[in-house]
TrEMBL record:
Stated name of the protein: Globin family profile domain-containing protein
GO terms for MF: heme binding; oxygen binding
Taxonomy of the source species: Eukaryota, Viridiplantae, Chlorophyta, core chlorophytes, Chlorophyceae
UniProt-listed SUPFAM superfamilies: Globin-like
Organism of provenance: Chlamydomonas eustigma
Gene3D superfamilies reported for this sequence: Globins (1.10.490.10)
Origin superkingdom: Eukaryota
């Protein structure tokens, strides 16, 4: 498993009661979304096979916060794509992560956002879901295109 480095600029912004975690809108931070999402991912039998002792909780949560940056930002940019391909390369090539796993992740992400409807405006939820779906390309081939 590669060592995951924090992406430049990720931890630079905002403080809305969530410490040093990036705030994606006035309504919510990445940490809040990840806190709700993490346990769903960890407890999913399809996805839990990819958690192991080499991947600590902080690393996983950071990786999920990066995904929230994509979701609540402007979607998948080329540098995001390269980062996601690098982070998931071993999982895709050696451990068999596929679009099926991505779909399971996406279902948990969607459910998490639905649970936050009382905090997040529907347009932000809609945009975040569309942006998250833009990351599918990473799991279709595992290669930079």
């Amino acid at each position: 498993m590669p060592v995951v480095q924090k992406r430049a600029g990720f931890d630079q912004v905002a403080n809305a009661g969530d410490g040093d975690h990036k705030v994606f809108s006035k309504e919510i931070s990445g940490k809040k979304v990840v806190d709700k999402l993490y346990h769903k991912l960890y407890n999913d039998p399809l996805l839990s096979a990819f958690w192991n002792d080499d991947l600590d909780v902080e690393t996983v949560q950071h990786m999920q916060e990066v995904m929230m940056e994509v979701a609540f930002g402007s979607g998948l940019q080329e540098d995001d794509k390269a980062y996601l391909v690098d982070v998931h390369a071993d999982l895709i090539k050696e451990r068999g992560v596929t679009e099926r796993h991505f779909d399971a992740y996406l279902a948990h992400f969607d459910k998490t956002l639905e649970e936050l409807q009382d905090i997040l405006p529907i347009d932000k939820i809609k945009d975040a879901k569309a942006n998250m779906r833009s990351t599918r390309v990473v799991f279709q081939s595992g290669k930079k295109k």
